[in-house]
Design brief:
alpha/beta, Rossmann fold, two-stranded parallel ribbon, 7-stranded parallel sheet
Length: about 500
C-alpha cells in the first residue's frame, strides 16, 4: 500500500455524513471517497424510499452502477464502510430515527450537504422545502454532532445572478431566509405561486433564489459552526474518474445535447459568442474533498465564512457556438439510434427567427407525429415532450444569453497549497495545465449515449443509416413546409393571383 497523501491522511479514521448521495454529484463523491480515501472509518448516507423501492434496495441498485466497478475490482472491502439510514431532508432532523440520530451525532466528523431540488422551473414551495428548509434541517442535525470539523454546503455559482462579477463571498439580499421558510409553511402552494414572480426578482427561477437565501442562512451560522460554502458552475460528465464521460443526469448541457441528438430541439435562444462555464463532475468533487482538509489546516479560524467558486480555468472555456458546432460533428460520428427527427439545432438571439424555427420545425412536426400515432392507435407523446422542452428552454435562456464572470481566488489559493502527490490522486484545476477539451466533449457525447441513452458503441453503424434516412426526410419536409409558408404569404399579398393572371394572358 502506497504512502497516504496529506489529504488522504486527513480522512483516515474519519466518519463522513452525506445528504444527496444518490444524486449525480453525490454518487461521484461517494465513489471517490471510498476509492481514494479508503482509510476513512465510515460514510453515513441517508436515503428515502422512491418509486416503491426501499432505501436498502436503492443502495443495492446503486452498487450495480458502472461507476462503482473499479471499487468492486480493486477495493471491494471498502463498500462495507457505507452505512445507510432511512432519511429525508424534507423531514425534521432529516427523518432519522432517535437511535440513528444519536449514532450520527456521536460519530460524524465531516458533513457534505448536497441534497437539493435542481428543478429550475419548480414551484417555490418545493424549492424552499428542499433547498432552504432542507439546509436548515441538515444544520440542525449537524449541531448535535460532537466532533464536527467541517460542514460543506453545496450551493451553485449562479445563485448571485444580479452581480456582474461573482466573488467568493455571500451577497446580501432584502429577504430573510427565516421569513421565507415561515411563509412557505403557512401559505398554500397556489397563493405562494401567485406572489412568486415578485419575490424572485432579479432571480430567473426558484432554484437560484432559494440557493442564495440558503447561503445567507449558512453564513449566519458561521460563528457557532464550522460551515463552508462550495459553488460549482455547470457540472458536466466526468473528465477521467471513475470513467471518462460518466453521467446519469439529464440536467444541464447533457439533457440539451441528448434532446438535440434526438432531433426534438431545433432552436435555442443563446448568444453563441459567450463562453460556457462548465466543470467535469470528478474535478468538482475533488475540489469538495480537499475543502475540509484545507479548512482544518488553518491555525486560526478565518474571520469570514470560507467560500469557494468551483470553476475551471479560463483556458478551458469554449463558446456555446463552438460546443454546438463540435457537438453536431460528434453527433454525425456517434448518432443516437432512432432519433425522433434529424438533429439540426440552431443558436440565435433573434426571437422572431427562434420562434419561426420552434413553430415550424418543433411544434408542427410534433403535432403531425401525434396525429399519426393517434391514427395507428398508439400513445401520443410528442406534444407533451415539446411542452416540457418549451419550459426548459425558457428557463435556460437566462443563462445562455448572459456573460458570467466567476472569480475563484480562494479555490486556486487552496489548490496551490497542496502537496504535489495530491495531484496524482485528485484531478484538480491548474492554470498551466493543458486540457484536451475536444477529447472531453467527445467523451461527453459517448457518455450521454452510453449511460443515458443506453446505447453501446456497436449500434453506431445502424444509427448512421437511420440518420441518413432522417436527413432526407428532414429536407423533404422542410421544403414542403417552407414552400407552403411562402405560398401562404404570396397568396395574402396577391402575388399568387398576379402570377396566375400572367400565365392566363
Amino acid at each position: 500500500m502506497s504512502e497516504l497523501t496529506p489529504v488522504q491522511q486527513y480522512y483516515k479514521g474519519k466518519t463522513v455524513f452525506i445528504t444527496g448521495a444518490s444524486g449525480f454529484m453525490g454518487k461521484v463523491l461517494l465513489e471517490k471517497l471510498l476509492y481514494s480515501c479508503y482509510e476513512l472509518k465510515e460514510i453515513i448516507m441517508i436515503c428515502r424510499s422512491k418509486r416503491g423501492k426501499s432505501p436498502e434496495s436503492r443502495l443495492e441498485d446503486m452498487w450495480k452502477l458502472p461507476i462503482f466497478q473499479r471499487i468492486k475490482d480493486e477495493r471491494p472491502h471498502v463498500l462495507k464502510k457505507v452505512t445507510m439510514f432511512a432519511g429525508d431532508i424534507t423531514n425534521e432532523m432529516l427523518g432519522l430515527s432517535e437511535e440513528n440520530l444519536k449514532y450520527v451525532a456521536e460519530n460524524t466528523n465531516i458533513v457534505f450537504h448536497m441534497a437539493a431540488t435542481l428543478k429550475l422551473e419548480g414551484n417555490l414551495t418545493d424549492a424552499v422545502n428542499m433547498n432552504l428548509a432542507g439546509t436548515r434541517r441538515a444544520m440542525d442535525v449537524a449541531r448535535k454532532m460532537k466532533n464536527l470539523e467541517a460542514f460543506v454546503h453545496l450551493s451553485t455559482a449562479f445563485c448571485n445572478c444580479d452581480q456582474e462579477i461573482m466573488y467568493e463571498k455571500v451577497y446580501e439580499f432584502p429577504h430573510k431566509p427565516e421569513d421565507l421558510m415561515r411563509m412557505a409553511e403557512w401559505m398554500d402552494v397556489q397563493t405562494l405561486d401567485a406572489v412568486t414572480p415578485k419575490l424572485l426578482s432579479p432571480h430567473p427561477n426558484t432554484y437560484t433564489y432559494t440557493k442564495r437565501l440558503a447561503e445567507i442562512y449558512v453564513r449566519d451560522q458561521y460563528n457557532t459552526m464550522p460551515v463552508i460554502i462550495a459553488r460549482p458552475s455547470i457540472v458536466c460528465p466526468a473528465y477521467k474518474e471513475p470513467m471518462p464521460g460518466w453521467v446519469d443526469s439529464l440536467n444541464g448541457p447533457v439533457g440539451v445535447m441528448t434532446a438535440g441528438g434526438r432531433g426534438v430541439i431545433r432552436s435555442m435562444l443563446c448568444d453563441g459568442e459567450l463562453e460556457a462555464d462548465m466543470i467535469p463532475v470528478d474535478v468538482a468533487i475533488n475540489n469538495l474533498i480537499i475543502i475540509p482538509y484545507g479548512f482544518c489546516q488553518n491555525k486560526e479560524r478565518p474571520p469570514e465564512i470560507p467560500i469557494y467558486n468551483i470553476t475551471m480555468p479560463k483556458s478551458c472555456r469554449r463558446s456555446w457556438m463552438w460546443i454546438l458546432n463540435n457537438g453536431v460533428e460528434l453527433n454525425k460520428k456517434y448518432p443516437l439510434s432512432w432519433p425522433l427527427w434529424y438533429p439540426n439545432a440552431t443558436l440565435t438571439l433573434n426571437k422572431h427567427y427562434h420562434w419561426f424555427n420552434v413553430i415550424f420545425f418543433m411544434w408542427l412536426p410534433a403535432i403531425l407525429i401525434d396525429i399519426l400515432l393517434t391514427i395507428f392507435g398508439q400513445r401520443r407523446f410528442m406534444i407533451y415532450i415539446q411542452k416540457r422542452i418549451k419550459v426548459g428552454l425558457e428557463v435556460l435562456q437566462f443563462f445562455t444569453t448572459r456573460k458570467w464572470d466567476f472569480r475563484n481566488d480562494n479555490l486556486m489559493k487552496l489548490i496551490k497549497t497542496l502537496n504535489e502527490k495530491e495531484f496524482t490522486v485528485f484531478e484538480l484545476q491548474c492554470e498551466d495545465k493543458e486540457y484536451d477539451i475536444e477529447g472531453y466533449l467527445e467523451q461527453c457525447c459517448l457518455g450521454g449515449r452510453l449511460y443515458i441513452g443506453k446505447e453501446s458503441i456497436d449500434t453506431v453503424p445502424r444509427a448512421k443509416v437511420i440518420l441518413t434516412t432522417m436527413y432526407i426526410l428532414d429536407k423533404v419536409c422542410k421544403t414542403l413546409i417552407c414552400g407552403w409558408f411562402f405560398y401562404w404569404i404570396a397568396s395574402k399579398i396577391g402575388l399568387v393571383d398576379l402570377i396566375a393572371e400572367i400565365f392566363e394572358s
